[in-house]
Amino acid sequence: MKDYQTPSDVRISSWNQLQDQLFRGSWNDSLQRYRSPFAFRGLSDSRYRLQTSIKRLEGPYWQLERHLLRNFRKYAQLEARELGSFWHLLSIAQHHGLPTRLLDWTYSPYIALHFATANLERFDTDGVIWVVDYQKAHNHLPPSLKNLLRSEGAQAFTVELLNALQQHQHHGPDETIFQEFVETLAEFDSLGSEEEFLLFFEPPSMSERIVNQFALFSVMPNARRNIDDWLEANAELYRRIIIPATLKWECRDKLDQCNITERVLFPGLDGLSSWLKRQYSPKQ
After folding, report:
1. pTM for the complete prediction?
2. DSSP string of 48-82, one letter each residue
3. What's the whole-number mean pLDDT along residues 123-140?
4. Could you tell me how far CA 217 lies from the centroid of its own chain?
5. Which is more confidently placed, 80 or 24?
């Protein structure tokens, strides 16, 4: 695997410097509060790209997307009743491991740091936290999406808000009313026909895992597009915090003391077992 670096990389050298970087830019002057506009994604290897699970299928994966979702809807009815909404279906599918074009992020810098330091097999490798200003990223949305977000007074979408696109009225200068229906991936893709964009939305609180991980998803109107390529073309929207391998154990131990662990982020016996395995593994 080749090294992957960007001009936005910030290589930290201490825990204190890491805190400064994780919370840099979180002050909101208009609110006089610390309200971060960033989404975070932690990876155990700084060479990893922002690759969606469906891209990892390789081959003509973009042709398989609709078949995966159609069959997931067909066979999941017994366990997942609320599959009527396309965005709900996509969120549930991602949550349960189906390859999709969604990518997981979190509002929490510490949860991102957990994912950058949880893999014991990568403790000899530099980790990374991607930091994306999702509020500024939404300035690149097409007018229909941008207007819907502003009318709600929100910074990120929810599934309910995206569903409102199915029958959203807008009064233009000529007082005409139009409706846009985004019920399928093809129709969503058409919104990016003139200019591609990166959209962030909060999944429904369908499980403790979603809630505890302070999760949100990103999606692009093109399953074949690389998210990091789009970000590199819009370099003002992101930065990468590089965590040296030599600092991972200190970060890991301090996160454990703060109770940022698999036991909390993955409630249940699987998370408990992962936490205990890591806790009792030797440092070497």
Report:
1. 0.90
2. -----TTGGG-SSGGGTHHHHHHHHHHHSTTT---
3. 97
4. 4
5. 24
31, two tokens: 């609110």
* Cα–Cα distance measured from residue 139 to residue 143, given in angstroms and rounded to the nearest whole number: 9
Q: Please, what is the end-to-end C-alpha distance for the chain in angstroms?
A: 23
- Cα separation, 251 vs 242, whole angstroms: 13
What is the token pair recorded at 228? Answer: 């990091």
Q: What confidence score (pLDDT) does residue 198 get?
A: 97
Under DSSP, the state recorded for 18 is H
Give the SS3 label for residue 180: coil
Give backbone dihedrals phi and psi of 183, rounded to 5 degrees, phi first: -105, -15
99-122 burial: b if 16+ Cβ within 10 Å, else e: bbbbbbbbbbbbbbbbbbbbeeeb
- Give me the phi and psi of 79, to 5 degrees please: -100, -30
Share of the chain above pLDDT 90, in %: 65
Q: Any idea what DSSP says for residue 262?
A: H
In the three-class reduction of DSSP (H, G, I as helix; E, B as strand; rest coil), residue 268 is classed as coil
- Contacts of range 244-249, beta carbons closer than 8 Å, 24 or more positions apart: 244/11, 244/12, 244/13, 244/126, 245/123, 245/124, 245/125, 245/126, 245/127, 247/12, 247/13, 247/14, 247/15, 247/18, 248/116, 248/117, 248/123, 248/127, 249/123, 249/283
Residues 77-84, mean pLDDT to the nearest whole number: 64
Domains of the chain, by residue range, sit at 49-279
